[in-house]
Specification:
Among the domains are: about 5-105 and about 345-420, no CATH class; about 255-335, no CATH class. By secondary structure, the protein is mostly helical. It starts with a helix and ends in a 6-residue tail after the last helix. The chain has helices spanning about 5-15, 25, 35-55, 55-60, 65-85, 85-120, 125-135, 140-155, 160-175, 175-195, 205-210, 225-240, 260-280, 285-305, 305-320, 325-330, 335-340, 345-365, 365-380, 380-395, 395-405, 415-425, 435-445, 450-455, 455-475. Helix content is about 75%, strand content about 0%. The protein contains 25 helices and no strands.
């Protein structure tokens, strides 16, 4: 195997890991891609990520193998660099990786806490009950859940949105496996497409925004390509839906106190993060952490005024003779922000740590510089970015985008938006290509499956290519 094909092979492997931004440090040392430590490191990471991809079958949390791999890779790097008298270079790269991860961790932690708070206040339950109780037919529910997934995911992230819509589909679909499978595919495509034109819709877009390649407002040109990416497969799949009406029963859901105000605080938090980044040029995470303070103070307000609020509502319920209302009041508990923090997806956050640190080691050893030379120097960047999207269907879109950011190729705004689009929506091609797809396979086990999604892959590919063509046509001025 000559050097070119070896580089491409390593590129496929390396593209499953996020960025370290330590290229400047590694430039002081010769490439170690052909050394024993380099080969062992790439083998360790490859084995770890294969175990991650088999998570559903092994019942092993995905954070465990990458945490172990990261420790082993950096232990080997530390030993070699210390022997060569360059341990300061390794320490500098390590600290830079930790800083990058800290920004990601804190940002996601605040976002997850707000989403968890909304869930605890029953906002998502109320939305689900409203959709179930309206008596829509299968085709109407298909479009309603898809459109809502598309427009909610830019704010609430694609994973949470997909799970919410899937719960509705499972509740109304009953034993109609055909409808559930098509509806879940539609939700995955819609959630991934909706998250592609907003920094808050997906971690891939968040990373591009935090890296400073695309500003908050500059994501907007991706709106129409994202719409096309969703609509093309949705229109085709809609012709294969049953025309009957599901049997549903309406369930009343009462929002807990402060639910709507938490939405307002979340919007204010997003605005704060954007302002810190756009006006002060600080990392957006500073604004997000300030937004966590908004939620903490509001939680304090809800706790201190709980007794007064319950007393007033109890008097109203007694006056009306509403026994059901009295029972609901008895189950109300004070709002606790730190309990919401504990409900964050810690396995996911630790998984990101492991992958960030693994790629930091691979980058220091010279692998990503070699891949970048092949993909973004010898290839046309447009084709390279299209390939990135296809790769994201195999190994998850988040680490693919992280790897591109680590390479940090010199590209036009149009190409940065293109890779943001492809990495975001490319994960829809396979059910394992995005967190939304993997989560829905678990939520709708046996009804939404890998092969059930795979047979619609050609239709989803049509949407993928159509969205790229729309972007290249409408936003051609950004490629100059």
């Amino acid at each position: 195997m000559d050097r070119r094909w070896w580089a491409i092979f390593i590129g496929v492997i390396a593209l499953i890991a996020p960025p370290s931004y330590a290229a400047t440090a590694s430039s002081n040392m010769p490439s170690m891609t052909g050394s024993t430590i380099g080969i062992v490191a790439i083998i360790i990471f490859t084995v770890a990520y294969i175990v991650v991809m088999l998570e559903e079958f092994l019942q092993l949390r995905k954070s465990k193998p990458v945490l172990l791999a990261a420790g082993i890779i950096w232990a080997m790097i530390g030993f070699v660099y210390q022997q060569q008298g360059h341990i300061d270079i390794a320490i500098s790269a390590l600290e830079h990786n930790l800083l990058e991860y800290a920004e990601l961790l804190l940002f996601l932690l605040v976002a997850m806490t707000y989403i968890s708070a909304m869930e605890e206040r029953r906002l998502f339950d109320a939305l689900q009950a409203w959709m179930v109780g309206k008596g829509f037919d299968f085709k109407s529910l298909f479009w309603l859940t898809g459109i809502l997934a598309f427009f909610i995911s830019p704010i609430a992230d694609n994973l949470t949105t997909a799970l919410l819509m899937c719960a509705v589909v499972l509740k109304v679909g009953g034993g109609n496996t055909r409808f559930i499978n098509i509806a879940c595919i539609n939700i995955v495509v819609a959630a991934n497409a909706g998250g592609a034109f907003s920094p808050f819709g997906d971690i891939t877009t968040l990373m591009v925004w935090q890296a400073g390649h695309v500003s908050f407002a500059e994501f907007l040109p991706l709106f129409l390509p994202s719409v096309i990416n969703y609509l093309v497969p949705a229109l085709i799949m809609s012709f294969f839906l049953p025309s009957s009406k599901p049997q549903t029963t309406h369930q009343h859901v009462e929002l807990k106190r402060g639910a709507k105000r938490i939405i307002g605080l979340f919007i204010l938090t997003i605005a704060t993060a954007v302002a810190f980044h756009a006006v002060l040029h600080f990392p957006p995470v500073i604004g997000m952490m300030m937004g966590l303070a908004y939620l903490q103070f509001f939680g304090y307000f809800l706790r201190t005024t709980l007794k007064r609020s319950l007393s007033r509502k109890a008097h109203q319920a007694i006056a009306k003779g509403d026994d059901a209302a009295l029972k609901r009041l008895g189950s109300v508990v004070p709002f606790d922000v730190f309990r919401r923090v504990s409900h964050a997806e810690w396995d996911t956050l630790l998984f990101f740590y492991g992958v960030v640190m693994c790629v930091g080691g691979l980058n220091l050893l010279g692998y990503l510089a070699m891949v970048s030379d092949i993909m973004y120097t010898q290839w046309d960047p447009i084709w390279a970015n299209i390939v990135v999207g296809v790769l994201s269907a195999i190994v998850d879109n988040i680490p693919v985008m992280f790897a591109v950011l680590t390479m940090d190729p010199v590209m036009s705004m149009g190409n940065w938006l293109l890779v943001t689009l492809t990495a975001g929506v490319g994960g829809s091609l396979l059910s394992i290509g995005s967190a939304a797809g993997v989560a829905l396979m678990g939520a709708a086990h046996g009804k939404y499956t890998f092969f059930g999604h795979l047979k619609w892959a050609p239709v989803i590919m049509l949407g993928y290519m159509a969205s790229i063509l729309v972007h290249l046509t409408l936003n051609s001025y950004l490629f100059i």
